[in-house]
Specification:
The complex is a heterotrimer of chains A (439), B (154) and C (74). Chain A has 439 residues and is mainly beta. Chain A is 5% helix and 56% strand. Chain A has a single domain, classed as Porin (Beta Barrel), CATH 2.40.160. Chain A contains two helices and 25 strands. In chain A, the strands form four sheets. Chain A has a 16-stranded antiparallel barrel. A three-stranded mixed β-sheet of chain A has the order 17-16-22, covered by helices on one side. Chain A has a two-stranded antiparallel ribbon with strand order 6-7. Chain A starts with 15 loop residues before the first strand and ends with a strand. The N terminus of chain A is likely disordered. Chain B is α/β, with parallel strands linked by helices. Chain B has one domain: Glutaredoxin (3-Layer(aba) Sandwich). Chain B is built from six helices and five strands. In chain B, helix 3 links the parallel strand 1 and strand 2. The longest helix of chain B has 18 residues. Chain B is globular and about 40 Å long. The N terminus of chain B is likely disordered. Chain C is flat and about 35 Å long. The model of chain C has no long low-confidence stretch (mean pLDDT 81). With 74 residues, chain C is mostly helical. Chain C starts with a helix and ends in a 17-residue tail after the last helix. The chains are: A mainly beta (439), B alpha/beta (154), C mainly alpha (74). Chains in contact: A-B, A-C, B-C.
Chain lengths: 439, 154, 74
């Protein structure tokens, strides 16, 4: 399998930088609060903020400020709020493959090619992507923990997220109980999510012809999740945690903007159809985390295994190592994360035009492909001498690589279509995040 | 603690003596065991990493000031493994009460400390009468009342 | 088959919980455990930002941190 000019496996780098503001953290030991209302507020609430800048080389970029405030009550309770604003813009792949001929697509709001306010052309060999993709999201969350008695706590929380084409509300509740002199903690939580999807230009009929612009009304989906967790102090230096989670989503689970290329025997793109995913998805995962620490250093290792009813199985492993400088005022923390997932049963980068996909499930979204990703990064944190403020800076880089199988499938189409490069569906390149944090 | 008070009292007194001997003396000077007998003792186990302890210190200082003349002795036993951490904590609070150091935790073990912080209110005869696990302002009011009650006894 | 898996899981869980009673530290030995880098939810915002970014690119999400550990105070 030879490609003309690029290596068989293409790795692209994504740069992301993010800045954060300093944290103000108030300790409860402060005696007489000074400075009036604002001063008292700052002393009683722990404020944390971060500004994340994420950049994908040649694709989207995102700016995301996050703010959180937390207050501890005298009885051991706590209330906290957080607010996130996301602004995403750039070019987003639509799921179609590169072709030897030029391709034209309409922006999602179009009702037909003739009346479309905006079309975008894709040169032969280039990956089809909407260059005007932009999305803004505002999310607000709150949680309240109240102690039932010394060893038991109940937490209630909610989240609200608003985008111009997607609205989501979640409610969660959890209970935690300590045993064995607080060496063991058992937690159980449930959550319920309700989402409304109002795609720009209306929801396309699944599997319908792209050029027909068949649209229907708004959609919704719901999810329920449950988590059982066990946290155990192993010894003075080691804490372990084991969580088992399950969730089930039902309703409209498609990406309304994603299409699948239909190719003829010669590899020419003859058209596109909208993707179609099952209406139910159940996931189960097991998560194990270990934290080991000494006077000047600590390490964390976490593993997660997930399976779902779409045929996806994933494995995640992450290691963090933290080294404190003498005096424990600053630290450096390198981190590595490895992720692998298998493809969904119905993942297919393209469809031969001989197949009639009347009731077939199909998606070319690379988020459902077989790939592995490696993220590595480093964080630097410091305490200001007043012991009330902390800051940090963090940088990560991710490289994602599609499995050889998927690449071959792309190659088959690509070679037949005479393209110059292996297609790079969304998610294929890597991401680097540089983040200055309030820790 | 009504039944078998006499032997319990004796054991407690001996235990208290042993603990006092085993705890490393605070820089403030040798402990005067005779001076403690006949006084109500508020013995608190604390550590620099214990957040509620930061609230308990100002309160302990205030009860020391209020009741010292009536016969209250406040003793704070530190269980930090690293003395430097404790010193940094003490530098913030400058307590007027006695501070003892128990880095091996043997004192804490003897008094069966089951949470941090733990405070024991010991009457004038050396008997542990009340135990408080954790520190809450509301609970501190109860402890103050218990101290007053024991101070009133002879 | 599902029932049997659930029963096995319950049995394993019970053994784990029972075994846990013999493992741990005294309440005054939690100095290192009380540090934020030793808490499962210690990294707060960092983890939330990471989760969001991975969620947008991958098919898996969540599963992590739930509390416990720490200084065990109050």
């Amino acid at each position: 399998m030879q490609l003309k000019s690029q290596p068989a496996v293409l790795r692209r780098r994504l740069i992301a930088a993010s800045c954060a503001l300093l944290t103000t953290s108030a300790t409860r030991s402060q005696e007489a609060p000074e400075g009036g209302f604002v001063g008292r507020l700052l002393k009683e609430w722990q404020l944390e903020s971060a500004l994340a800048y994420y950049h994908e080389n040649g694709r989207v970029q995102a700016i995301e400020p996050v703010v959180s405030a937390s207050h501890d009550y005298d009885d051991g309770g706590n209330v906290s709020f957080n607010f996130t604003f996301d602004s995403l813009s750039g070019s987003s792949p639509n799921g179609a493959l590169p072709s030897r001929a030029a391709q034209t697509f309409a922006s999602p709001s179009a009702q037909s090619f003739a009346t479309a306010r905006r079309l975008y052309n894709v040169a032969p060999g280039n990956l089809p992507a909407d260059p005007h993709y932009s999305d803004a999201r505002a999310a607000f969350g709150g949680s309240w923990t109240l102690p039932l008695e010394r060893l038991t706590r109940v937490t209630l929380g909610g989240k609200l997220s608003i985008e111009d084409d997607f609205y989501s509300g979640t409610f969660n509740a959890a209970i935690a109980h300590d045993f064995n002199d607080k060496n063991t903690t058992l937690s159980f939580g449930i959550s319920d999510e309700a989402d409304v999807i109002k795609p720009i230009g209306n929801t396309p009929v699944p599997l319908s012809n792209y050029a027909a612009f068949d649209k229907e009304g708004n959609k919704s989906k719901n999810g329920v999740a449950a988590l059982l967790g066990l946290t155990q102090v192993m010894n003075r230096y080691w804490l372990a945690q084991l969580n088992v989670t399950a969730d089930r989503f039902s309703g409209y689970l498609n990406d309304p903007y994603k299409i699948v290329s239909v190719l003829d025997a010669g590899g020419n793109t003859t058209g596109y159809i909208y993707e179609n995913r099952p209406e139910v998805r159940t996931r189960r995962s097991v998560y194990l985390e270990n934290r080991v620490g000494g006077a000047r250093a600590s390490a964390g290792l976490s593993l997660r295994y997930m399976t779902d009813t779409w045929g996806i199985r994933s494995q995640t492993a992450q290691v963090n190592l933290r080294w404190w400088a003498a005096g424990r005022q600053q630290y450096i923390e390198p981190t590595v994360r490895w992720y692998h997932q298998t493809a969904a049963d119905f993942f297919q980068p393209w469809l031969p035009n001989t197949t009639a996909p009347a009731t077939q499930f199909i998606s070319a979204d690379s988020r459902l492909a077989n790939f592995h990703a490696l993220t590595y990064g480093v964080k630097y944190g410091f305490d200001l001498s007043d012991k009330l403020h902390r800051g940090g800076i963090r940088a990560h880089r991710t490289r994602r690589v599609l499995s050889a199988d998927t690449q071959h499938q792309h190659c088959d189409a690509g070679l037949a279509a005479g393209t110059r490069s292996v297609s790079e569906p969304e998610g294929r390149p890597g991401a680097v995040r540089l983040q200055l944090l309030g820790a | 603690m009504a039944d078998g008070e006499k032997p319990v009292r004796a054991v407690s007194t001996v235990a208290a003596l042993c603990c006092l001997i085993m705890a490393v003396p605070a820089p403030a000077g040798p402990i005067d065991l005779a001076a403690l007998r006949g006084r109500v003792v508020y013995r608190d186990f604390w550590a620099s990493w214990c957040t509620p302890c930061r609230q308990s210190f100002p309160w302990m200082e205030s009860i020391r000031k209020s009741y010292q003349d009536q016969g209250l002795a406040v003793i704070a036993v530190d269980v930090d493994q690293d003395r430097a951490d404790a010193d940094r904590f003490l530098a913030q609070f400058h307590p007027g009460f006695e501070v003892l150091f128990d880095p091996q935790g043997s004192n804490a073990e003897k008094f069966k400390v089951s949470g941090m912080p733990t405070s024991l209110i010991i009457d004038r005869h050396g008997v542990v009468r009340y135990t408080h696990v954790g520190f809450w302002p509301a609970d501190a009011q109860v402890a103050a009342q218990q101290i007053r009650e024991l101070l009133a006894e002879h | 088959m599902r029932v049997r898996t659930s029963l096995i899981a319950l049995a394993v869980g019970s053994v784990l919980l029972a075994g846990c009673s013999s493992v741990g530290v005294k309440p005054w030995q939690r100095d290192i455990l009380s540090r934020s880098d030793m808490r499962p939810d210690g990294a707060g915002l960092d983890d939330a930002i990471d989760e969001h970014l991975y969620f947008s690119k991958e098919a898996s999400s969540g599963g992590r941190s739930f509390g416990g550990g720490g200084c065990g105070c109050n």
